[in-house]
């Protein structure tokens, strides 16, 4: 429990930059071509994008990731997050609207074994850059769920939102209750495998304007939390969520604290 609280706090404060650069193993060479369809290496460019992650995760099932850009960086239109050694390496595919520039975006993932965690960013016109870190963690995709099945059924789809002001931008924090079962976990009572059941689509809008969208796999954490900076125009935040069992939820939040 203490580890989960600590990881949540990391989402509320900047994650310190760490000396854990990408290792670029043979796994990445295979993924780059066969999974992502990239024939050439994608350059690292801190002037466009950085990815912050801990050297060693406090808990492998909720590893904090932060994507940031300098103030004068070109807009990032989309990001593919890859965790090289996870069973399903493509963890998430994000798109970002203009109000999210420059990007300051945090979320939590599962890391199954020591792995490079990388973000491949699309800045338009076919231009791509990469950022990433090597993270020491293991067992994140099969770690036991934090709630029993009755609690899962009672709370799934509930959302919470809060917003604050910082340096002239609004900082929004969205939490969605969902077990995001990976398919690799066991029910702690029956000891049977829990079928995969996770959020596979999330859309966050400011009024009618898209802030960000997410297409996800099994690597996004249980009860996902997203913390992000954006330019507010005062319109309500509208959230749409879909999961792999065909459930969907919608909720609208006013942009106020609490």
TrEMBL record:
Domain Sulphur oxidation protein SoxZ intervals: 163-253
Domain of life: Bacteria
Record-linked Pfam families: SoxY (PF13501), SoxZ (PF08770)
Alphabetized SUPFAM superfamilies for the sequence: E set domains (SSF81296)
Key words, A-Z: Signal
InterPro entries listed in its UniProt record: Fuse-rel_SoxYZ (IPR030831), Ig-like_fold (IPR013783), Ig_E-set (IPR014756), SoxY (IPR032711), SoxY_sf (IPR038162), SoxZ_dom (IPR014880)
Domain Ig-like SoxY stretches: 48-141
Record's keyword annotation contains Acetylation: no
UniProt name for this protein: Quinoprotein dehydrogenase-associated SoxYZ-like carrier
Species in which this protein is naturally found: Paracoccus acridae
Phylogenetic placement of the source organism: Bacteria, Pseudomonadati, Pseudomonadota, Alphaproteobacteria, Rhodobacterales
